[in-house]
Amino acid sequence: MTKTTIRVNRDIQAEKRERAAAFREKLSRQGTLVLNLVSSPGTGKTALLEATAKELKGRLRMGVLVGDLATDRDAQRLAPLVPVEQLTTGGACHLEISLVEQGWQKLGEPEFDILFIENVGNLVCPASHDLGEHLRVSLLSTTEGDDKPGKYPKMFRTSDTLVLTKIDLLPYLPFRVEAAIEDARLIQPDLDIFHTSAITTEGIPDWCEYLEQQRQKLVASVQTS
Amino acid sequence: MHEFSLVKSLLRQVNEIAEQHGATCVEEVKIEIGPLTGVEKILVQEAFELLSPDLPGSDCRLTIIEVPLQAICNSCGKSIVVQNFQFQCTACGSSNIRITSGDAFRLLDVTIDTELTTGVTEP
Lengths: 225, 123
Description:
The complex is a heterodimer of chains A (225) and B (123). Chain A is α/β, with parallel strands linked by helices and 225 residues long.
């Protein structure tokens, strides 16, 4: 017997990251902006997508991949509004690029302007997995408390955008908007922030305008490269 | 909770390496994690204990190296340690910093035993 130490020094997720990068590259070339929506359960990811689909109707072609541990309830909610495919993880706490690739194929790989990936409701595990998105969007609802960003630093650090949801409930809650934003900006100073209510639709037009701008930016960057 | 799937992925890569090198036994796996890796050390250890009997040999040891969250300031160029997830340069106060370590799950090295087939005897 002889003993050998083999030096590897590699990120164990390197291969998955490369797959995610290839997916991002492919969708960039066809002009599809990919967003990964992450939050706690019940923050209102599906409600935000419903409101977004109504606002963007006739302006942008959008599709949704929606992840949950079980049931296709979210897909049923969204189906009357947009092409949607449910990704059922069967217990896994996050989505991975392989599930996204499968869902994308099941949708028929259409040339959307925007593809939303609604992640499993969880502020921990999804932070560690690149799904080939151009933008990671964290949602934070007024009913969750304003101290969340500091408690889940990885999620907010790896996000590009923060959408505050359920702001119509602010008069009834102790949620301090400024404290939440300050906490989030300490972790990620470059966050683009939106204040929304899917019920009153407050802030939804600004959010959708942002989506259009981001999509135009992507198309312009692909054309120049 | 995703430690289990990460350790599974780790072991798949260790197995590939063991196979490539004709290992009869994997003695030690050394990994690096940090504050922003998003895993809990104890849960990684537990997942490893559950899953590592699938490796060649038995009693494979997992060594976990914990590194601090380090960054380079894009404004002043200084190398800093990020404390308490305060993502600001401790020298100039800039928040324009780039994380250099402590956010990944790295496989550092794998120590294996191989059967000698070349006729060379051990000293």
